[in-house]
Design brief:
Blueprint (H helix, E strand, L loop, with lengths): L1 H6 L7 E4 L6 E2 L4 E10 L3 E2 L9 H12 L13 E10 L5 E2 L2 E10 L2 H22 L2 E10 L9 H4 L2 H12 L10 E2 L7 H4 L5 E4 L4 E2 L7 E2 L4 H21 L1
Parallel strand pairs: 1-10, 2-9
Antiparallel strand pairs: 3-7, 3-8, 4-6, 5-7, 11-12
Helix pairs in contact: 2-3, 5-7
Length: 244
């Protein structure tokens, strides 16, 4: 989507992505920073490893220190989260590995907060590398900017695109379960438009849960509402476009 928008700048007024679970309507963009944190050294045989620089020790120290970096408290208006998801390194049992790495997933809608947390994480990694006498380098895996908080996106929430999508779901009798009908976040193709200042939303296909696990599930019956939603939203937006 980012590539398409870059290649077709100025050609669209709004964007609707079909992605994720059904309701609420998402009109923001969750910032997502994916990094590979790599620690490297000369390595050595176990017999000569005493007091030698050790990439694994640096990575372990760094991971523990990262999880000491404070996040906004649960229930705060703006939240953030980070996670070490993959660890790798070494080729044999009886040697210090020459390189050890782990991946980090950092997410928040706040563009200032995500940069601040990212800087703290990198600083922690650099300090761990110095402490253990190894080299550190950070490699980007993905760098998706944050769209802004609900307060920062107040004008987007008031946009007819968002309200039309909400009205469609309410007309179809969708139960938001006490949640707001529209939220200033999203991890979809709509993100690329949000951060470019283009009014954009993401609407889902059905109810579901436990994503990215073996117990992931989807409620097929709710897909009926999801399908009707798309048809009605398309008709409503097409009518607006024709009047303009």
């Amino acid at each position: 989507m980012s590539y398409w928008l870059d290649q077709n700048e100025g050609t669209i007024d709004m964007l609707v992505a079909l992605d994720g679970g059904l309701g609420p309507v998402q009109y923001g963009a969750l910032g997502i920073y994916w990094s590979s944190m790599k620690f490297s050294g000369q390595g050595s045989h176990t017999l000569s490893s005493r007091d030698s620089p050790h990439p694994a020790k640096a990575a372990a120290r760094c991971i523990l220190d990262i999880y000491e970096i404070p996040l906004p408290p649960s229930g705060a208006p703006v939240s953030a989260i980070y996670n070490v998801g993959m660890l790798s390194g070494g080729h044999v049992v009886n040697a210090i590995p020459q390189e050890v790495s782990f991946t980090l997933d950092l997410r928040t809608v706040d563009p200032i907060l995500i940069e601040d947390l990212d800087s703290q994480i990198v600083a922690v990694c650099e300090a761990a590398a110095r402490e253990e006498g190894v080299e550190f380098r950070r490699e980007w895996l993905s760098h998706n900017e944050a769209g802004g908080t609900a307060e920062q996106l107040a004008d987007r929430r008031a946009h007819p695109l968002v309200q039309t999508a909400v009205d469609v779901l309410q007309y179809l009798g969708y139960d938001f379960g006490g949640r707001p009908p529209a939220i200033a976040t999203g991890s979809t193709d709509a993100n690329a438009a949000v951060v470019r200042g283009i009014p954009a939303i993401s609407v889902g296909r059905s109810r579901g849960g436990n994503q990215h696990t073996l117990s992931e599930w989807a409620d097929i019956e709710s897909a009926r509402i999801g399908t009707k939603q798309i048809v009605l939203l398309t008709a409503a937006l097409a009518e607006v476009a024709s009047e303009i």
